[in-house]
From TrEMBL:
Gene3D superfamilies: Fe-S cluster assembly (FSCA). InterPro entries: Fe-S_Maturation_MIP18, FSCA_dom_sf, MIP18-like, SUF_FeS_clus_asmbl-assoc. Residues 1-30 are annotated as: Disordered. Residues 36-107 form the MIP18 family-like domain. Coiled coil: none annotated. This is SUF system Fe-S cluster assembly protein. It comes from Parvibaculum sedimenti. It holds the Pfam family FeS_assembly_P.
C-alpha cells in the first residue's frame, strides 16, 4: 500500500495481504461505489493480443484512491516487451478517468513481481481454455 496516509487501497482480485486499508475521509459507501466503478472501467480495457480484460488477466497490482478521489494504479504487462507497453498506461488512465467522481489518474508500470498466468482469475482461465 502507498506510504501516503490519505490513500485507501481498493479491493483487488488476489487480496492476499493482511494489511488493512488506511482510513479514508470518503464515506465507505462512496469508496465502495468508486471501487466498483473503477474495476468496471479496468474491465473495459483489453490487451489487443489476448481476448481477456486486463483486470481478469491480473495485470492490475494495486489501486489507491485518495481522499481527493485521485487514483494511483500499479500495473504490469504480460511481458516487458509487450507491443502495447507505450499505449496501455494511457488506455488504462483514460478508462478510469471516465468514472464519475474520479480526480487525477496516474498509472505506474512495474515488472516487479513479473506477471505470470497464476495471477489470472478463473474467468480469464476459462476464456483462454487454461482451466
Amino acid at each position: 500500500m502507498s506510504d501516503d496516509a490519505n490513500m485507501t487501497e481498493a479491493k483487488m482480485p488476489d487480496e492476499g495481504t493482511s494489511e488493512a486499508p488506511a482510513s479514508s475521509a470518503l464515506p465507505q459507501e462512496e469508496l465502495d461505489r468508486l471501487t466498483d466503478d473503477i474495476i468496471a472501467a479496468l474491465k473495459s480495457v483489453y490487451d489487443p493480443e489476448i481476448p481477456v480484460d486486463i483486470y481478469e488477466l491480473g495485470l492490475i497490482y494495486k489501486v489507491d484512491v485518495s481522499d481527493d478521489r485521485d487514483v494511483l494504479i500499479d500495473m504490469t504487462l504480460t511481458a516487458p516487451g509487450c507491443p502495447v507497453a507505450g499505449t496501455m498506461p494511457e488506455m488504462v488512465a483514460d478508462a478510469v478517468r471516465s468514472v464519475d467522481g474520479v480526480g487525477d489518474v496516474k498509472v505506474n508500470m512495474t515488472f516487479d513481481p513479473p506477471w505470470d498466468p497464476s495471477r489470472m482469475s478463473d474467468e480469464a482461465r476459462v476464456a483462454l481454455n487454461m482451466y
